[in-house]
Amino acid sequence: MENSFVKGGEKNNNHQPPLSDAQSLSSSHSHEHQASIKYLNKYQNSIENKEAFWQEQASQLQWSKPFTQVSDVSFDKNDLHIRWFADGELNVCVNCVDRHLAERADQPAIVWEGDNPDHSISLTYKQLHEEICKLANALESLGVTAGDRVILYMPMVPEAAFAMLACARIGAIHSAVFGGFSSAALADRINNCEAKLIITADLGLRGTKSIPLKASVDEALTLAEGHSVDKVLVVKQPHGSGTPAWNDKVDLWYHDCVDNQSTEHTPPTFDAEHPLFILYTSGSTGKPKGLQHSSGGYLCYAQTTFKEVFDYRDGEVFWCTADIGWITGHTYLIYGPLAAGATTIMYEGVPNFPTLARFGEVIDKHNVNIFYTAPTTIRMLMADANTALSGSQRTSLRILGTVGEPISPDVWQWYYDDFGLQQAQVVDTWWQTETGGHLIVPIPDSGPVKPGAAQRPFYGIEPQLVDSNGDILEGETSGHLVILDSWPGQARTIWGDHQRFIDTYFSTYEGMYFSGDGARRDEDGDYWITGRVDDVLNVSGHRLGTAEIESAALTYSDIAEAAVVGYPHDVKGQGIYIFVVAKTGVESAETLTDSVRSKIRQALGPIATPDHIQWSPDLPKTRSGKIMRRILRKIASNDFAELGDTSTLADPSVVDKLISGRKDLN
Ligand code: PRX
Questions:
Q1: Environment class of residue 293 by beta-carbon count within 10 Å: exposed (0-12), middle (13-18) or buried (19+)?
Q2: Which ligand 1 atom sits closest to the C-alpha of 434?
Q3: Nearest-CA neighbor of 281 among 273, 292, 266?
Q4: For residue 306, how many C-alpha atoms fall within 13 Å in the half-sphere facing its CB?
Q5: Residues in domain AMP-binding enzyme C-terminal (predicted)?
Q6: How many whole angstroms from 353 Cα to the centroid of ligand 1?
């Protein structure tokens, strides 16, 4: 590939994006669309001949029974259905592992880098196949069958990958829950998907911290009254603390079940629409929703986007730093890279252990060519750039990906200039748990790249901006980001609540998928994601619903009302700010701040810990009782200048009290 803008060489000190020849030539006609002709032609073709385009992509998977129909889709809320390759049959695990054995048996499939810099393991495709077969046999002997739900509450260890792929192999539906979620959050998910089995570890390790995962599972099972879990399979970690609390009726050591199993397993095949996994994510209301993904369409989309967006070349080493508890850890740590026969790195630890130089060291140690992380991590590295860049060369890097939140131009530029030494193209990938894979992204070679912009639709994707009436906006404009037509990787439903799926995504704007994000389209037609337009926060790239945090706060008996908003945070992107009103009669409420904070941690997990808790005698409400969050967001952001019209408030004086309370907190 000719990289369209990386013109070797001089360091760009004025922090302007480097220009490609095409961009320089046409800079006097800035209204001309500057994407490359090659991309535009391919994109145009993918839209005009969508079925043929996806047929061609899907043919790069191994089907046990070929499909005859590419898609069967309706975004009409009265007849919503999304089916791709529906009469085809395949096995996802076979596509990720078995089919590579002929050519890649001895190629590393997963390179595991431990929390401890002296620990790493390289697993070839052959070894990965054996481990998965053993676990698949073990799961079957425990009575797990196709369609059963298996919760994975695991650290970033190879067994987590074995678990996902062994479930896929036998048709069990996995649901990974991030290890940073509390036992209460885990209990909700166990009940919601009616899990039959849980796979966990005695401990997880993140930097110097041990996470007692097995103990959290025990607590979750107590909380999840009437649950359907038969067995808990526990991976013993070398750094574990001996025997955790144990219930002989339920708990089993992973090694006791797996070690003696056969390394052969005959894979059954499944319909393309057979659910592959459920992944919970936060919305603006209610409890997290379990997005259900398919087998054939999802894998086709994971493989296609992986190869195209990262311009993957045979033999390259790919490192995605996401945890397997998130969608990025599914699509671009496991399914995409393995479907493509790549070598994927799995890192157990955190960016700053033993020091902030670790990521660079791991890149050099394993000769990583493509690196994929979140802006929050880049900001963390940038904040102590000397340490982050010390002790590594990073010359193997060719592509640098970013995901999860808007990346500001200065952070983008540092990533490109300093971390990637101006040798690696930055791809800012916009997508969501619901979308399964990248939707808007500057594909390498698609034209000049703009720092901070996700830019261009992926092949087959039709984004649009709409106003609040759902009318499509033309040209240079801002609006709500919708997608007009389906793509194979899209989530099919919310587990157990199809109506909520329709209401959340297909009812705001009829006939369109509503992303919940706002975006701007510039004069070249490029998209700039501006962030959520609903009550969802993005904290260090993690999605959290304000409603969830508020209900956790309200379980604290001294609190009458709570309102959560986000505010700009240097490293996390958004911080969590909570306004709380104490019940009448509660004295010295401020002294309760720490216990409210720990109550929320306990309910949801450390990632939902509020950064600021402000007690207030009241909240700003309209006369009809609606909280005016716009005002709270301004106050939390220390931005008191333009609060807008406050005359519709039932009690406008509350604003001054909130401002003085905010100043006291600073
Ligand atoms: O607001 C957008 C933001 O993250 C949300 C999706 O979060 P989640 O489902 O947890 O998936 C994260 C990983 C795909 C989006 O609605 N987001 C994601 N990527 C970007 C982004 N915002 C701006 N730029 C991005 N590249």
A1: buried
A2: 9
A3: 292
A4: 34
A5: 548-626
A6: 26
Residue 22 burial (CB count, 10 A) = 17
Q: What tokens does 363 get?
A: 């890149």
End-to-end distance of the chain based on CA atoms, in angstroms? 51
Nearest atom of ligand 1 to the alpha carbon of 326: 10
Tokens of 366: 């394993």
Rounded distance from Cα 314 to ligand 1 centre (Å): 28
Residue 506: count other Cβ atoms within 10 Å of its Cβ. Answer: 21
Give the count of beta carbons closer than 10 Å to the beta carbon of residue 21.
11
Ligand 1: distance of its center to the CA of 504 in Å? Answer: 17
pLDDT at residue number 30: 41
Residues 473 and 471: their CA atoms lie apart, in Å, by 6
Ligand 1 atom nearest to 531, measured from its CA: 1
In this structure, the residue with its CA closest to atom 14 of ligand 1 is 432
CA distances from 277 to 59, 402, 545, 633 (A): 22, 24, 22, 36
Residues of the chain with pLDDT under 50: 1-32
Residue identifier of the C-alpha nearest atom 22 of ligand 1: 405
Cα-based distances in Å from 181 to 67, 186, 613? 39, 7, 21
* 43 φ/ψ sector (left φ>0, alpha ψ -120 to 50, else beta): alpha
Which residue is it, tokens 């708990």?
251
Rg of the chain over CA atoms, in angstroms? 25
Tokens 């889709």 -> residue: 73
Which H or E run contains 401?
Answer: strand 399-403
Residue type, 290: G
Nearest CA to ligand 1 atom 5: 432
- Which of 324, 530, 543, 544 has the most ligand 1 atoms within 8 A of CB, as the residue to mutate? 543
Half-sphere exposure (CA, 13 Å, Cβ side) for 98? 22
- Do 549 and 285 touch, CB atoms closer than 8 A? no
| Axis-axis angle for helices 546-554, 593-604 (nearest 10) | 120
Distance 463 CA to ligand 1 centre (A): 15
Cis status of the peptide bond prior to 354, with omega within 30 of 0: yes
Find the residues whose C-beta lies inside 6 A of ligand 1: 281, 327-328, 403-406, 428-433, 454, 515-517, 529, 531-532, 538, 543
Cα separation, 438 vs 432, in Å, equals 8
Identify the residue whose tokens are 């697993």: 123
Interval between CA 467 and ligand 1 midpoint (Å): 21
Q: In this structure, how many other beta carbons lie within 10 angstroms of the beta carbon of residue 499?
A: 12
Distance CA(459)–CA(620), nearest Å, equals 46
Q: How far is the CA of 480 from the centre of ligand 1 (A)?
A: 14
Say how far apart CA 376 and CA 405 lie, in whole Å.
8
Beta-ladder partners of 614: 579
- Nearest CA, atom 24, ligand 1: 406
Q: Does residue 544 contact residue 565 with C-beta atoms inside 8 Å?
A: no
Is the full-model pTM beyond 0.80? yes
**Nearest-CA neighbor of 429 among 513, 299, 332, 330?**
332
**Contact, 89 vs 65, CB < 8 A?**
yes
Alpha-carbon distance of 169 to 431, in angstroms, equals 27
CA angle (494 as vertex; 491, 498 as ends), nearest 5: 110
pLDDT at residue 239 in the model: 83
Q: Render pLDDT for 152-209 as a digit per residue (tens, 0 to 9).
A: 999 999 999 999 999 999 999 999 999 999 999 999 999 999 999 999 999 999 999 9
